[in-house]
Protein 1
Amino acid sequence: MLGKIAMGFLVVTAMGTAYICQDGFVNIRVEEYRKGGENHHLILPAQLAPLAAHFVPLRHLRNAERGLRDFLPALRAASTELAKIPDTLLVEARDHDEHVRISKSGDGLDIEVESPREHVHVWVPLRAIYDTADALASRLGTN
Amino acid sequence: MKLLSSWKRLAVGSLALFAAALMITAIIHAQTPQGERWLHVRVDGTVANGDMAHVNLPISFAIAILANVNHDQLHHGHINLGHADLNGVDVRAILDAVRTAHDGEFVTVKNHNQDVSVAKQNGMLVVHATDGRSSGRQSVEVRVPISVVDAMLSAGGQDLDVAAGLRALASHGDTDLVTVKDSNHTVHVWIDSKNNMD
């Protein structure tokens, strides 16, 4: 009996892990240049973002509803179209203070910001962007 | 008999695997965008300020975004000029006049210290604008294939169909579209088949 429960628990855990990890991982790296600055490196399951979108209180979504309604379809289209193109540098901008690079890299979007204060590097799977936009659209009833 | 059956099974299995590999290859090739056109925007500041911005986007991507944005004057790839403040310039009427005119016929618009000339040359709409008001003189040159103008005007009413314009643009060869120069920045917009600025 205990064996069956353990097996069931194992199967549910494995399925949950597979579900959480299905979209890959968001990779965030922050390196502070100030004296005593900290370095952070976070690797988060990308599926957490659309999952969180399902649980955001509706009143918070309503505050941003107009903007979301206008741009969520574009966000979904963007992630779908980006998945079709080869790896490339999409946007690069530099001023006296910051240098920003946004590239399509593998199955994700690579965002890098370099400033005298810090270096921020984020990689987000395109699938997660699509799923998050989809989840938000679903919550707002615009699907 | 049993051995022959095993060989047959092996042969059928190999054939099935080969067919599957062929199908996968065909699907991968079908999904790879062939002859993708890229829209490039390059903004370079002077050496003194060192600012710059470079954008490389596939035209199909730009069309997909435009077709899905529904905000202010932009609706599903159409820009509504009905309420746009264009200093009294009727952009749609000018585009229509140029579209139906013969090569070399000009429309000139003078507004305060700005000079704008619009011409049709070898199937291209060419717009030159200079602004002498500011201390640093600014010049703008826009070159757009007439087929793109046709596509943009196809929306009718007060709308310009920008998405249709981009689709028409994608069927053209390498084209310089916009060049803007002033004392601080140079802006260059063009399309080609490369996904970088080299």
Protein 2
Amino acid sequence: MVGRRKDTPGDGPGHRQGNSDPEVRAIVRDGVLVGVATGAYGISFGAISVASGLDVWQTCALSLLVFTGASQFALVGVVAAGGSPFLGALSGLLLGTRNTLYGLKVAPMVGWRGARRAAAAHILIDESTAMTITRSNREHARAGYLATGLSVFALWNLATLIGALAGDALGDPRTYGLDAAVGGAFLGLLWPRLDTARNRVAAFLGAALALALVAFVPAGVPVLAASVVALGLGLISRGGDGEP
Amino acid sequence: MTLWLAVLGCATGCYLLKLAGMSVPERALAHPVLRRTADLLPVVLLAALVAVQVLVVPTQDGPGLGLDARLAGLAAAFVALLLRAPFIVVVFVAALTAAVMRL
């Protein structure tokens, strides 16, 4: 309960106790690099969102307030396909449930309470989780979480604005392959998870089920329906999963 | 207006989902089936997103399956990942390949 450090999610890198621990410095540097890499993806989000029929303000509001990439892409993807915005929001929400699961792993590692926890929750995403749950102590976990989460938040939102303005100016994002960039980005996020046979089977079945449903259900639903594969394999598979 | 409601509703819900994860006890994930499902969920959803993003095309009857430059982009991304390229390069290669295919 008693943290050794008093930093809050609002603290910048300048407050990190002088960065005396070289490991913390390395963790912060890696977090910033993840933020830069994710920013590029934010440009494509901004451009695609505007091309999908949202205005620049709505696009920026998604990145500022929803701030979880797959959910944002799901919402604009449904709108682009002619689906109801509310179905898009629902798709985004169901994809956002994975952040709940991330929170279960992250919360005991960072050990925040009250207002700090409420503030920290906003930057609970794939990247901040990945850069936190492998740490060996609370200080490193907090450094990884804050450095990654805040870097991604800053650069994702900046990139979204740039992408939205550029998308407005450039016209059809397909000319620049931005639609293909989305698939490449999702594959890049999936790639490190394909490290076990079980996960590869799950990925194949999830993709196959989604594609099988595409022609029969509203846009956005196939991806959600694929989640039953996770439940099904969760029920029938056995053994340890190496989780802490 | 509908779009704004959807944006704000999604934002509120997504934040509450994050806060719930940070707030409920860790043992909420203790059951092995729930734990395995939790680990598999992002794998399955990301795989489904890859497939749908790359292979779904609009048709007169609504969304359908089809092949276009996006698949070439995904193949290029796959090769980049095999070569251990960083994420930003993977995304760029996918976009560049698709853009070149459409010239």
